[in-house]
Amino acid sequence: MIGLISATAAGAAARDRLAAAWPERTRVYEGPVGDAVRTAFAQCEQLVCFLATGAVVRLVAPLLADKRTDPGVVCVDEGARFAVSLVGGHGGGANELAREVAELLGAEPVVTTATDAVGVPGLDTLGFPVEGDVAGVSRALLDGEPVSLDAELAWPLPPLRVSDRGGAYVIRVTDRAVEPGEREVVLRPPSLVVGVGASKGAPVNEVLGLISDALREAGLSAGNIAELATVDAKADEPGIVQAAQRLGVPLVAYSAEELAAVEVPNPSDAPLAAVGTPSVAEAAALVGGGELLVPKRKSERADGQPAMATCAVVRRLARGRLAVVGLGPGARDLLTPRAKAELRRASVLVGLDQYVDQIRDLLRPGTLVLESGLGAEEERARTAVAEARKGQAVALIGSGDAGVYAMASPALAEASDDIDVVGVPGVTAALAASAILGAPLGHDHVSISLSDLHTPWEVIERRVRAAAEADIVVTFYNPRSRGRGWQLPKALAILAEHREPVTPVGVVRNASRPDESSRVTTLLSLDPTTVDMMTVVTVGNTATREIAGRMVTPRGYRWQEGAQ
Ligand code: SAH
Asked: Where is the CobE/GbiG C-terminal domain (predicted)?
């Protein structure tokens, strides 16, 4: 039983919401607060006090005996903004209770126990069915108790902080029809594709009966079905459509042509004549590749009439996932929430050591970090792709946007279609600098890298010249390094052939990093020796002006004339 104690009207209102949501689990203690807390402490396994933490500390301190037997105590503040796990975080279940209470009240759970502060993903948030002792195993993961992973299926999972020493708790990843034992959960990733064929008017029960017989005899679980698959001509066949609905999975359909191209063990003439492919069930199940676990079988009819449905079951190969994640220019609040989510999802992180340092605190415990120094780009790309091919969830990181002069291209040049790839955009240096400078990119603009390590200078020069002639705003990346001194002056000279010496130039070093600096100068006055590899240089077009110390490129030439 959870005892509920409040003192104020606001506290009572929050208390009543809890009491209404959990009528069986809670009991309201009224009367003077001190007495209410003492009585509830003696009678309940848990307390939720809608009181200040200080007040509750004073009231319960004399009552505390043993953390294994004391009730768990959660405090909720007057504004119901926080649910604080105060004592009995583990033994008393207060951490879990704080989360539940917070969820219900729309508050923030506050959990200060060391092992809980490091995020472990909820087993029920992985996006596929979980069976068994979810509460017990989750608690064990949170408490840092040894939990072992028994993965019959290689499937990309976020790091679950499992122990290789074995343990009393087990996480099993399988598509077999097994019952979870005590202290065990079974995770069921979507590994099975069921190919289905049916003649016109086949009853849904015949289709479902066939599928469930096929799975049962093969020792497989319906909880792992990813999708039903069939041929286009049967995509609207009610028995198949309803079977997918009842199983709660999507129905995908392929053209007869696509199916005819798939090698199958049991082709036949009947479907060839009817829909134009020698196999429906087997071919549809096998389109994406995988292992045929149940070859084509037909439904059985009690009345001895000819079978109206066929099915086949394939175990898909686990698809690894490669997330190419831009971290933004440096500041934590310019890292997008989506990038953060991908970093926390990853079981393997690949990146340059200085970028890994930038986000190390966001990684889940157990994440494998493969960091390397400058250079080694191709190797980083290869490593990331190779890890994804093993079925891992990989995050490949880069500063700014990972697709701009960065890792996305070498990685995708390596990747084949046997892995899923997602890109997460980041704030690239040109944009971070532009926001600092004012509005230099208000009209057409390009980025040009002045690094001639991988690109011949003639190519770079041709592009600078084209931008100069076309009066486009230019942002130079990699403008100048110790070994590359003459390229920036040369590039500026080319632009100066087409732009006034007073054309504004913005120089931003370490945008959004602690030692950020910036200035607006002109083509004539820019001193290239003040520029280094931490810097981007943005040169305005012929309409760009410095206004109140800010660099402003008008939206259009005519537009500005009109405004004057
Ligand atoms: N992918 C990165 C660019 C990598 S190329 C991005 O999208 O931003 C490296 C160059 O980017 C550096 O030489 C510098 O010119 C520029 N750069 C990257 N981060 C920067 C920052 N925070 N401030 C200024 N310039 C930066």
From this structure: 192-313
